[in-house]
Design goal:
The mean pLDDT is about 90. α1 (about 10-20) links the parallel β1 and β2 (about 30). This protein has about 650 residues and is of the alpha/beta class. The longest helix has 23 residues, at about 330-350. It has 24 helices and 14 strands.
Length: about 650
């Protein structure tokens, strides 16, 4: 039983972990901030405004030591949601365990370490695909040989569903990613062939469970069937225990709503049942989002409520006392068979393209298309969401207080972390750091396993940014696919008449402008949640606008430069990490400094108090998840352009 947590600083997160463990939590699930996830120190230019916002900043052994102070790692099961820098965070974890006097071979836990889904959905990659896969496989090989209780990889279908994946896509793409990893481990040759079944047995999955309860149960039963088949037929694993589909879960966050947010409590509970009712396909670990995630970061009480849901199900109900409730169900068997058939067909299509590594562009485009279809169904009313497009009248939520019902990270936390990092650099043995980084650089240029050199770097005092910086020098930089093609995707269907009307409105504004309306869709900072930006870009293009969208991870200066060079009429910024308070005003100020007077709009999870501050900083409009009707939203943006650029 877990809650996914971490924020502000290592010390604050340590206090939160101790509190959660005292309340009955049985494992830790660590959230790292975006600079840590993407391999930057807290003082890097791209880290501005991001430090401590969506997780805990860990830049050195000192931060990791503080994070687990008073928590004996030899007795703990720790899940670290980390991918591009998974090797580095595991190295720091091992180094701290050694300092505690732990028997390192007894460490238990999980590194997510699924880099492929980062190119498809989450965006926190640091290196190109091939070197990233090397880091993944090196961690797998090292843990199998030295940390036998550690799960070296969590194949993560969770973010695939968050990016709009259907159950068939979630099954097929997650299994394709797992096959790519296993094939790469075998090809690397660091695990003896006789021990390869141990690699298969240590792979776990991290899945999503949405609101379509029966379909989600069927999906998990399909996962069990398909994984057993793949491990037996493709990899020849004989021991059924090593073929077991082992998974943890966080239930769906995509479906949580800003409107009537208390409804999310019921959604979360129903989604948890989807991964617990079927005994043969039951999750091994569950972490639940908080009811207010669509509003902002959850407070300790909100996390406690999610933990209590799990405890009530486990200790008050009879759910865990019975055999599988769905065995022999004609309805369930039919649904599972349909999912298995569809997923097998799509998996074969990915493998025919050379496997997941070679099919990243294909899978990314499919997810963007699927998400666009999901949004169209909601916008048209075909897919009903209580409180959003049906039963929309209601009372104000008593759970939302004057502070917005969320945790607000103190901006002072970033300054404190920068001071802490500087003090660490000043106090460490610089010669040891230089020597450790030199060895890391040497090993990176060979075919040797990078894990021992990374652990040596952790012990020597190397920082996160320094470790990743050396690997960037050797491996190079990379920008992932956006999945946003040139074709329009929202034509026809129930939205047809509204789209036609909106296109006419845009054309009328363009006639007054004298040229096509051009919008820049920007992702400042390190936030890799690109789903919203992608859908805005697609719908804007479908309405006839010219769209400039260069993907994720841009500095405010780069966005300003692009706005000037592309001569855009409006800049739209999408941020989910909470860094909007810092980054959005920087773009506004940068445009003013260039003498460019175009409206800037911002969107995603932005609390009302922050929206007011952004308006004071010159932002023309703020959109949040309640503004789900993209067509109306973009017409409003076009009218802002007309007000700014067209004489009355």
């Amino acid at each position: 039983m877990r809650t996914y947590s971490g924020h502000s600083s290592a010390a604050a997160s340590n206090a939160l972990y101790r509190s959660n463990l005292a309340k009955g939590q049985t494992g830790l699930s660590v959230a790292f901030d975006l600079p840590t996830q993407t391999g930057y120190d807290s003082d890097h230019v791209l880290a501005r405004g991001e430090v401590g916002k969506v997780g805990v900043p860990v830049t050195s052994l000192d931060d990791m030591r503080t994070l687990f102070d008073g928590i004996p790692l030899e007795q703990m099961n720790t899940s670290m949601t980390i991918n591009a820098t998974a090797m580095w965070l595991l190295a720091l974890y091992v180094a701290v365990a050694e300092e505690q006097g732990a028997e390192v071979s007894q460490l238990a836990g999980t590194t997510q370490n699924d880099i492929l889904k980062e190119y498809l959905s989450r965006g926190t990659y640091a290196f190109p695909p091939q070197p990233s896969m090397r880091l993944t496989t090196d961690v797998v090989a090292y843990t199998v040989n030295h940390l036998p209780k550690w799960n070296p990889i969590n194949i993560c279908s969770y973010h695939l569903q968050e990016a709009g994946a259907t159950p068939v896509q979630e099954l097929a793409f997650a299994l394709a990613n797992a096959i790519a990893v296993l094939d790469a481990v075998r090809e690397r040759g660091q695990v003896p062939e006789d021990d390869f079944d141990k690699v298969v047995g240590r792979i776990s999955f991290f899945v999503n469970a949405g609101i379509r309860f029966v379909e989600e149960v069927a999906k998990l039963r399909a996962f069990v069937e398909l994984w057993d088949r793949i491990t037996a037929e493709r990899y020849g694993v004989q021991d059924p225990k090593l073929r077991r589909f082992r998974y943890g879960v966080q239930v769906n966050s995509l479906g949580l709503t800003e409107q009537q947010p208390e409804n999310n409590i019921a959604r979360i509970l129903i989604e948890m049942l989807g991964v617990t009712l079927s005994k043969t396909a039951r999750a091994r670990a569950v972490q639940l989002p908080a009811w207010n995630e669509a509003l902002g970061l959850p407070r300790p009480w909100d996390q406690q409520l999610s933990l209590r849901m799990q405890q009530i199900l486990a200790f008050e109900t009879d759910l865990l006392e019975n055999d599988d409730l769905f065995d022999g169900s004609v309805v369930m068997d039919r649904k599972v068979a349909a999912l298995v058939e569809g997923a097998t067909e799509l998996l074969d299509a990915v493998l025919a393209r050379g496997g997941a590594m070679e099919a990243v562009d294909f899978m990314k485009a499919e997810l963007v298309r699927s998400n666009a279809e999901r949004l169209r169904r909601i916008e048209s009313g075909e897919q009903q969401v209580v409180g959003v497009n049906v039963f929309t009248s209601g009372e104000p939520s008593p759970l939302v207080d004057e502070e917005g019902g969320i945790l607000v990270v103190d901006d002072a936390a970033e300054a404190e972390q920068l001071a802490r990092l500087e003090a660490w650099r000043t106090a460490r043995d610089e010669d040891a750091v230089v020597a450790a980084l030199a060895e890391l650089r040497r090993v990176a240029a060979t075919d040797q396993n990078l894990m021992p050199a990374s652990i040596a770097c952790a012990r020597a005092g190397v920082t996160t940014g320094e470790w990743a910086g050396v690997l960037r020098e050797v491996f190079g930089e990379y920008r992932g696919p956006t999945g946003v093609g040139e074709q329009a995707l929202a034509t026809g269907g129930p939205l047809g008449s509204r789209l036609d009307q909106a296109r006419r409105q845009v054309r009328e504004i363009e006639a007054r402008l004298g040229r096509k309306l051009r919008i820049l869709v920007g992702k400042p900072g390190l936030d890799g949640h690109s789903n919203g930006a992608e859908q805005v870009a697609i719908r804007a293009r479908d309405l006839g606008m010219e769209v400039v969208y260069e993907g994720i991870r841009l500095t405010p200066e780069q966005i300003v430069r692009a706005a000037v060079d592309e001569d855009v009429h409006v800049v739209g910024l999408s941020i989910l990490s909470g860094s909007h308070r810092s980054l959005v005003p920087q773009v506004v100020q940068g445009l003013r400094a260039e003498g460019v007077e175009v409206p800037v709009v911002a969107g995603w999870i932005i609390p009302p108090a922050d929206a007011r501050k952004l308006a004071e900083a010159g932002v023309a409009a703020v959109f949040t998840p309640k503004d789900y009707e993209l067509t109306d939203l973009l017409v409003e943006v076009a009218e802002l352009v007309a007000d700014r650029h067209v004489p009355a």
